[in-house]
Specification:
Pectate Lyase C-like, 2 domains, mainly beta, 497 residues
């Protein structure tokens, strides 16, 4: 898989960078676009895009200044190029945005069923999301828009994303800053041959501000980028049971999130196959650095995650099988390699002080371990954890929350197969380092678990597992030299022992 994905990365790089090479430049000002931050340029910019697409393609170039607009549609063979100091800013009026009939969502910038499209240059795409969302709340309260205002916020489909590309081929998004969406920031849905390179995302203006969502796409590279989000930072989704996301490379990115840093699912109706994630840094993140889920009837297989550094993040690794929206399909999670990971878990809430923090939920519980949790009949299979070091804070208190390790206590942990999958969903778990349940052929190779203060729980608990291989597992806990740190229940080691 590794050699194949390396070849794929080179191929996609060539495809992506070829998009604007022979394109003609068209200044946005020559079509009458105003950069005063006041004039609404929607029709002018759209007319320019249409003209360029119909006349052989090219770049629509935005010189420095602020260009105000509502929903825009990028057409085939057109690249929006924002020079240094140029800002494409979303209108504050929700009625200036289109809810696309094919997609069912609003967006500032759309492209639907187009080829050879791009957004390049060091400028800024500013969704003006907080203002748009709060204005939408006002419209809903006045009866101008129908919306249940669940959780006191408009439905996601009634808040514009910054960018939504659907069923496009040969996509290049390079350089520049994307900021302040009203919903998710950048959605790439059922697209092929996608290059995302050297972008910066500041996605903390409102609720549900995911950074990048890759949905049912094939041949994608994300590299050398920084994502700061109030929801998942890099999230792979599969919305269509007949589709699958596959052949994806992520390299040399830094992420921060008030949800998860790197996430497979939710949703995963079709699934994910052949992914390679390398050189990922996760900081100040509320949920997990790495989350891999198979809970909606899709498959997850052939995933390589190699080289993760995680600091001030509440959970390192969470692998989960579930039966949430599976219907008559069977979810699978198989062939995952996670290696060369260093993580430091804080005691206090890691995203405290941000405008939109992750919720204080699923309490009481002490600090949660990394987990690999399947279901009795849908088991996680063939996982290798290699060269892993996780440092925990310790200090867990059995008088606050307690979970014992007797056979009866372990088997009483609820399955929660239909619950929304998050590392904290089980509340208290019986281990401080790793918890494994309903899983087969799991290998721990050179795994170091360290804890700064004592914990009433053992380091590792494995329940209902087969062919477990513990090689070079190191556990450091001060003041507990005689404590049994590895508990197994209804479990066989590799070789049948």
């Amino acid at each position: 898989m590794i050699n194949y994905v390396k070849q794929l990365q080179i191929l996609i790089l060539a495809l992506g960078l070829s998009i604007p090479l022979f394109a003609k430049d068209y200044p946005a000002a020559s079509f009458g676009a105003k950069n005063d931050g006041v004039t609404l340029n929607t029709s002018v910019i759209q007319s320019a895009i249409d003209f360029i697409s119909e006349n052989g393609g090219g770049r629509l170039v935005f010189a420095p200044g602020v260009y105000l607009a509502g929903s825009l549609y990028i057409k085939s063979d057109v690249t929006l190029h924002l020079e240094e100091g140029a800002e494409l800013k979303g209108s504050a009026n929700p009625f200036d945005y289109v809810q696309d009939k094919h997609i069912g969502w609003m967006s500032f910038i759309f492209s639907v069923k187009q080829k050879n499209i791009g957004i390049t240059g060091p400028g800024v795409i500013n969704g003006n999301g907080f203002t748009v969302a709060t204005n939408m709340v006002s419209y809903i309260q006045r009866g101008l828009v129908t919306d249940a205002l669940s959780y006191d916020r408009p439905d996601a489909a009634n808040r514009p994303t910054n960018i939504y590309f659907r069923e496009c081929e040969k996509v290049l998004v390079a350089e520049g800053t994307q900021k302040d969406p009203a919903c998710w920031n950048f959605v790439v849905d059922q697209c092929t041959d996608v290059m995302i390179d050297r972008i910066k995302i500041d996605s903390k203006a409102y609720w549900n501000n995911d950074g990048i969502d890759i949905v049912d796409c094939e041949r994608v590279v994300i590299k050398d980028s920084y994502i700061d989000a109030s929801d998942d930072a890099i999230c792979f989704k599969s919305h269509d049971a007949s589709k699958i996301g596959q052949d994806v490379v992520v390299d040399n990115c830094t992420v921060r999130s008030s949800a998860s840093g790197l996430k497979f699912g939710t949703v995963n109706r079709g699934g994910f196959r052949n992914f390679k994630i390398t050189n990922l840094k996760v900081i100040d993140t509320y949920r997990s650095a790495i989350t891999i889920q198979a809970v909606d009837g899709g498959l997850v297989e052939n995933i390589l995650i190699d080289g993760v550094k995680s600091y001030n993040t509440w959970n390192a690794i969470y692998l989960r099988m579930g039966d949430r929206w599976s219907g008559d399909k069977t979810s699978t999670l198989n062939n995952v390699v996670i290696r060369n990971v260093y993580a430091e878990i804080p005691f206090d809430k890691p995203d405290a002080g941000y405008r939109y923090e992750g919720p204080v939920e699923d309490l009481p519980r002490n600090i949660s371990p990394s987990s690999i949790v399947g279901l009795p009949d849908w088991r996680i299979k063939n996982v290798v954890l290699s060269n892993i070091e996780i440092v925990y804070p310790g200090g867990s208190n059995p008088h606050y929350a307690k979970r014992g390790t007797s056979k009866q206590e372990l088997e009483s942990i609820p399955e929660m197969h239909q619950a929304y999958p998050e590392f904290s969903q089980f509340k208290e778990l019986p281990a401080w380092g790793f918890y494994v349940r309903h899983a087969d052929n799991i290998t721990f190779d050179n795994v170091k678990l360290k804890i700064k203060g004592s914990d009433y729980r053992p380091a590792i608990v494995i329940d209902d597992a087969k062919d477990i291989d513990l090689k070079n597992v190191s556990i450091e806990e001060p003041g507990n030299k005689n404590k049994k740190e590895i508990i197994m229940n209804n479990t066989t080691k590799k070789g049948g022992k």
